[in-house]
Each structure stands twice: as structure tokens, then as C-alpha cells.
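Q: Sequence in, structure out?
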Amino acid sequence: MQTDVKICLSCGKAIQGRVDKKFCDDYCRNTYNNQSKAFTNNLVRNINSTLKKNRNIMSSLLGENGDTTKTTREKMLQMGFQFKYTTHSYTNKKGNLYGYCYDYGYLELENGWFLIVKDRENS
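A: Exactly. Output:
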């Protein structure tokens, strides 16, 4: 009876043991899985970091006691705000579309001005 030699997907060494075994040990299995998921993990980590930064920028613009404030697009961009990333959006009864980063949101007004708000409902 001829047996096929199985090769570890991570290090390339011969594997002994179960027929369905793919790795020679836990170290190789972990290394292989970490490398295969590295791009996705880095992408998610970078997007979450940007979302947190956007939230912190709106929080600092709003201050401690305010419910709303106005600021310019230019100021938000100078602080590092990235409009591409939001966690969700909300359309009010008037049809105004708010972009949110967690519990802080913004509404684009006229002439490059933005209204910054904090969602008190989920706080």
C-alpha cells in the first residue's frame, strides 16, 4: 500500500499523523493563518483607527458642554478628518443627511460649513 507524503503548508516539512493534517505543529498553523489574514487585519485596523480619529476630532470641536457647534471643512481637514470614513448615516425628517462616526455626527451646510452634533440618544 502506497502512502502519499503530506507536506506542511507553512514550513514544507513532511507531516506525520492524521490523514487530514495540514501542518506539522501549532507554531506552523498559527504562522500560516496569521500571514494569510495579515492584509485583512491591517485594513480593518487602519479603518478603525481613522474612524476613532474622526470621532475624536468632532469631540474636540464640540467641547465638553455643547450639543452642537459649527466649523469649516478646512478646519476639519487641517485636523486630519477624513470624510470618506463614517460608521453610519442618518436622514432627519427635513431630509438632511448626517454622517456619523460612532456617536458624533456632522451635517454639511452651505459655503463649506458643517454642523457638528453629539447623539445624546445613545450616550
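The first strand starts at residue 6 and ends at 7.
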